[in-house]
Automatic annotation (TrEMBL):
Reaction catalysis annotation: L-glutamyl-tRNA(Gln) + L-glutamine + ATP + H2O = L-glutaminyl-tRNA(Gln) + L-glutamate + ADP + phosphate + H(+); L-aspartyl-tRNA(Asn) + L-glutamine + ATP + H2O = L-asparaginyl-tRNA(Asn) + L-glutamate + ADP + phosphate + 2 H(+)
PROSITE patterns xref list: GATB
Subunit structure as annotated in this protein's UniProt entry: Heterotrimer of A, B and C subunits.
Name under which the protein is recorded: Aspartyl/glutamyl-tRNA(Asn/Gln) amidotransferase subunit B
Record bears the keyword ATP-binding: yes
Stated role: Allows the formation of correctly charged Asn-tRNA(Asn) or Gln-tRNA(Gln) through the transamidation of misacylated Asp-tRNA(Asn) or Glu-tRNA(Gln) in organisms which lack either or both of asparaginyl-tRNA or glutaminyl-tRNA synthetases. The reaction takes place in the presence of glutamine and ATP through an activated phospho-Asp-tRNA(Asn) or phospho-Glu-tRNA(Gln).
Parts of the chain that traverse the membrane: none
Domain Asn/Gln amidotransferase: 332-488
GO biological process assignments: glutaminyl-tRNAGln biosynthesis via transamidation; translation
C-alpha cells in the first residue's frame, strides 16, 4: 500500500530585542546563568508585566513578511502549567486571538542539478503568535540546574498547516523561513543557540484517504538537517508500524541525533490541560491600519523575489543567484558593487567575483561555515574597481586573480596594487611583438607554425601559453592571438 505523510511544524523564533517580553530586564545569548533576571522574570510577589512594544512591532513585521492577516486586536492569555522552567507557573502567550492569522511561505525544492532551479510552492501557515520563552533546565544524574536568563525572552511561534509531505519539503520550509527572517533582521535564527526551535507533527495515511492520520510530535532537533533526518526517520517508522498492523498513538517523541532514531517521551493522555484564561494584568493590543502601512515599508525584498529580479533584469544565471540571494548581506554587497561600476561592467562579472572568489576566501577552504562579511577587509568598491580595471583593459583576467588574493589579504585598493607591483596589462604593442617573435623563433614551435601556415589556425594555440608566461600573465590572450597572426603573416 502507498502512503501519504502529512507534516505540520511549530517553529519558535526568539526575536532580536534588547529587553524581555514583559519587563525591561535585558536579554542576549551567552550570559552567565541567572544574571539576566529581575523580580518580574523571577515572579516575585506583587510584580506586574509591561509589554515590550518592539517585540509586538517585530511580530507584526514577521506577519507581514509571511503575508498573514494581522489582527486588529489581539490579547494575552495565561497558559498554566507547573514546571521549574517557569517561576510563575504559567507562560504568557496568546490563545484564541493571535497577532497573525493565515499566511504562507514560499519554498524551493532541490532542482535536477545544482544549476537548475527547483520547483517552487507555497506552504500555508495557520497562525503566528507572540509569547515569552521559558528558562533552561540542565539535568544531571541526581539533580537539575535551572537558568532563568532565557525566561521571559520574546518568542514568536509560527504554526503551519499540515501542508508538507516529506522531509525535503520540511528542510526547504525551514531554510526559506530562516532566510526571510534573517533578511528582515527580526532574529538571528541560530538553532544551535536555541534562537530557532522546531517541533514537527507527523502522521501518515493510505494514499487517497481524505482524513489525516494520528499525529506524533517530534521534539529536540537543533539543526535544520537534524529536523530533516528526524522527519524522514519518523515517516518510515510510522509506515512500517501501520503496515505491520500496529496502530499509531498520539504521542510526543524525542529525536536522538547520536543514534538517529526517535523514542517515546510521553503519550497524549499524559499531556497537560493548560486552563488558558485572559491575562488580567495586560490590556489587549490594537494595531491600526495606518501603523500597518508604515511597517510594510520597512520590509525587505524577500530572497526569492530578489533572485527572480536578478535573473530577469540582470540576466544572472540561476547558480550565481542561488549563492547570492539567500544571504541578504551578500546580495546587498553585490548590488552595491554593481552600482559602483556605474553600469560599465556586466553584472555577471561582478557576481562571479563575489560568489566564487570572495566566498572562497571567506570560507578559507572549509566546507561549512565562513567568516562574516563584516570581518572582511573588502568593500563593494574593491570589487567594482577590480572589474573596471579588467573591463578597461588595464589588467588581464589572470592578473585580476592575483590582485584579488592580495587585496583580500591587505584591504588595499586594486589600483594601488597594480601601481605598486607594476601589473598593468601589456599594452605596448612593440614589446609584445618582440616577445611573440622571440617565442615563435624557438625551434620547438616549428611544427605548429608550419601547420598554421598550411591553414590549421588552431595549431598556434600551443604558443599562447609560453607567450603569456613570458609576459608574466600581463597580456590579454586575445591580443596575443592577434599579434601571432600578424607576426606569422
Ligand atoms: N494529523 C496531523 N498530522 C500532521 N500534523 C498535524 C496533524 N494535525 C495537526 N497537525 C499539525 O500539528 C501542529 C499543531 O497542531 P494542533 O494545534 O492541532 O495541536 P497542538 O497545538 O500541538 O496541541 P494539541 O496537540 O494538544 O492539539 C500544527 O502544525 C498542525 O499543522
Ligand atoms: Mg507555544
Ligand atoms: Mg504541539
Amino acid at each position: 500500500m502507498e502512503f501519504t505523510a502529512d507534516i505540520g511544524l511549530e517553529v519558535h523564533v526568539q526575536l532580536k530585542t534588547k529587553s524581555k517580553m514583559f519587563t525591561r530586564a535585558p536579554y542576549h545569548y551567552g550570559a552567565e546563568p541567572n544574571t539576566l533576571t529581575d523580580p518580574v522574570v523571577l515572579a516575585l510577589p506583587g510584580v506586574l508585566p509591561v509589554m515590550n512594544k518592539e517585540a509586538v512591532r517585530k511580530t507584526v513585521l514577521l506577519g507581514l513578511l509571511c503575508k498573514c492577516k494581522i489582527a486588529e486586536r489581539c490579547k494575552w492569555d495565561r497558559k498554566n502549567y507547573f514546571y521549574p522552567d517557569s517561576p510563575k507557573n504559567y507562560q504568557l502567550s496568546q490563545y484564541d486571538q493571535p497577532i497573525c492569522e493565515g499566511g504562507e511561505v514560499e519554498i524551493e525544492m532541490l532542482g535536477a542539478s545544482r544549476n537548475v532551479m527547483g520547483e517552487h510552492r507555497m506552504v500555508q501557515l495557520t497562525r503566528i503568535h507572540l509569547e515569552e520563552d521559558v528558562g533552561k533546565l540542565t539535568h544531571f544524574a541526581n539533580d537539575s540546574l535551572v537558568d532563568y536568563n532565557r525566561a521571559g525572552a520574546p518568542l514568536c511561534e509560527i504554526v503551519t498547516e499540515p501542508d508538507m509531505h516529506n522531509a525535503d519539503e520540511v528542510f526547504a520550509f525551514l531554510t526559506a523561513l530562516r532566510n526571510n527572517i534573517l533578511a528582515a533582521g527580526l532574529s538571528d535564527c541560530d538553532m544551535e543557540k536555541g534562537q530557532m526551535r522546531c517541533d514537527a507533527n507527523i502522521s501518515v495515511r493510505p494514499k487517497g484517504q481524505k482524513e489525516l492520520g494520528v499525529k506524533v510530535e517530534l521534539k529536540n532537533m537543533n539543526t535544520i538537517s537534524g529536523v530533516r533526518n528526524a522527519v524522514a526517520y519518523e515517516i518510515k517508522r510510522q509506515i512500517h508500524a501501520v503496515t505491520s498492523g500496529e496502530a499509531i498513538h498520539q504521542q510526543t517523541r524525542r529525536w536522538d541525533p547520536s543514534t538517529q532514531v526517535t523514542t517515546k517521551m510521553r503519550d497524549k493522555e499524559e499531556s497537560h490541560d493548560y486552563r488558558y484564561f485572559p491575562e488580567p494584568d495586560l490590556m489587549p493590543v490594537s494595531i491600526g491600519k495606518e501603523q500597518l502601512k508604515v511597517l510594510a515599508k520597512e520590509l525587505p525584498e524577500l530572497p526569492f523575489d530578489r533572485q527572480r529580479r536578478f535573473m530577469e533584469t540582470l540576466d544572472l544565471p540561476y547558480t550565481l543567484t542561488s549563492v547570492l540571494c539567500p544571504d541578504k548581506e551578500l546580495a546587498d554587497f553585490f548590488e552595491e558593487a554593481l552600482e559602483d561600476t556605474g553600469g560599465k561592467v556586466a553584472p555577471k562579472a561582478v557576481a562571479n567575483l563575489i560568489a566564487n572568489d570572495l566566498l572562497r576566501e571567506l570560507s578559507g577552504g572549509e566546507e561549512e561555515g565562513r567568516l562574516p562579511l563584516s570581518e572582511c577587509k573588502l568593500a563593494p568598491a574593491h570589487i567594482a574597481e577590480l572589474t573596471l580595471l579588467v573591463e578597461d583593459g588595464v589588467i588581464t583576467k589572470q592578473i585580476a586573480q592575483t590582485i584579488f588574493t592580495e587585496m583580500y589579504a591587505t584591504g588595499k585598493m586594486p589600483s594601488t596594487l597594480v601601481e605598486e607591483k607594476g601589473l598593468q596589462a601589456h599594452n605596448d604593442d612593440g614589446e609584445l611583438e618582440s616577445i611573440v617573435r622571440e617565442v615563435a623563433a624557438d625551434p620547438k614551435h616549428e611544427k605548429a607554425i608550419s601547420q598554421f601556415k598550411e591553414g590549421n589556425t588552431k595549431a598556434i594555440n600551443s604558443l599562447i601559453g609560453p607567450i603569456m608566461k613570458a609576459t608574466q600573465g600581463k597580456a590579454d590572450p586575445r591580443k596575443i592571438q592577434e599579434m601571432l597572426a600578424k607576426v606569422l603573416g
